[in-house]
Amino acid sequence: DADVTQTPRNRITKTGKRIMLECSQTKGHDRMYWYRQDPGLGLRLIYYSFDVKDINKGEISDGYSVSRQAQAKFSLSLESAIPNQTALYFCATSVLTSGTTDTQYFGPGTRLTVL
Amino acid sequence: AQRVTQPEKLLSVFKGAPVELKCNYSYSGSPELFWYVQYSRQRLQLLLRHISRESIKGFTADLNKGETSFHLKKPFAQEEDSAMYYCARRGSGYSTLTFGKGTMLLVSP
Fold it and tell me: What SS3 state is found at B29?
């Protein structure tokens, strides 16, 4: 879905460097999420935000931080990258419909390699 | 803790064969169950959800609360069904999804 974009798409960096991954959406959704995908481990939630003033830790937030600059933008930062943060990172958005359920719409992913 | 178990990392079938991708979840109230699919070089996208009781691309999934399962089924697999499939749940009172580890489906000609 081209309404959710991620930059950069690929990044190679060195241990100890600070990295920022950016996510933008034009869907007008309030909810945004960051996941990482690792082979054999599936998708794991890093952080999520239900509106601009709301930030919540997910399952694996250690070593990461986020910023919700606007409804449309949600950035993920690695303050000091380490090799085991090498993974595919996905941003997603959603909006509650029908009172309880929400469908998540994913970005194309950012492949991060930490050497 | 919410858990979603997909016991098979890889499922390989021939075209035209029936397919069943297994998913079990930890019991907690009235969860919402979903199947997401990721085709090669494409984004992860919703395939179907249990509350819709729909059939998408020939796939169906029935929520079995007694067995805490939400298996994905298709009677006749097609090559274009080859993809990574993730089962996910959203428990009552929770607003985020918990994903299983995924099952890679390979359909051979």
Answer: coil
